[in-house]
Amino acid sequence: MAQLSVIIITCNEQANIRACLESVGFADEVIVLDSGSTDDTVALAKAAGALVHITPDWPGFGPQKNRALALAQHPWVLSLDADERVSPALAKEILHAIDGQSSQAFEIPRLTQFCGQWIHHCGWTPDRVLRLFRRGAARFSDDLVHERVIAGGVVTARLNTPLLHFSYPTPAHYWRKLEQYSQAWAQQRSALGQRTFMARAAAAGVVAFMRSYVFRLGFLDGAMGFAVCTMQAQAAFGKYFALYCLNLKNDRSNS
User: Which helix (H) or strand (E) is 32 found in, with range?
Assistant: First the structure.
């Protein structure tokens, strides 16, 4: 059987880490790379048998996941977030896939729960993410946020069983992530010299809602679907508004 390393980056994930680690008990090695948790994340991860490493800084999601990837020792790597779970059916499919070795990387469909309800539309499903790959065949982009696995020229296949994503148990979790991601996205784009204006931010929000609620059938998810699409619109507006504010700040500094 091919051997598998699971890599997880964490920061204050005590509410999630135990269940996440329990779901990957089938792996040969589980690595947790923590970036300064002040809760019980590290203790819980160690108690669950994970190999825990701690970094003193936070370089962004992409660079941090590359650090975790560098710690993996086995031929195959599965990258997870702490709020994700691997079901027994998905674990079985993963082991079968890496043992067959017909491909060097696999996309996994992801099913996300929002405030206790699974969302099947809104552009959230199927949310295929490349998370399983042969070590050395892929790496993470250096993006501060919304990082992705880069596997250029690698044969990629798709698994069928969804990865379960418990990302937003309450609206407060969504707002916290929205602020974090919006600021990181804006800082990254500002560093690249990108500029925007208020009308662009407003248009981004309107387009995001229409795309998610109408064209991606968000209305079929009922009230929660409407909430998701509205929040996606606010997220689209928020990141461009954050960039707009950075542009103004930089203009004042340079004047």
Answer: strand 29-34
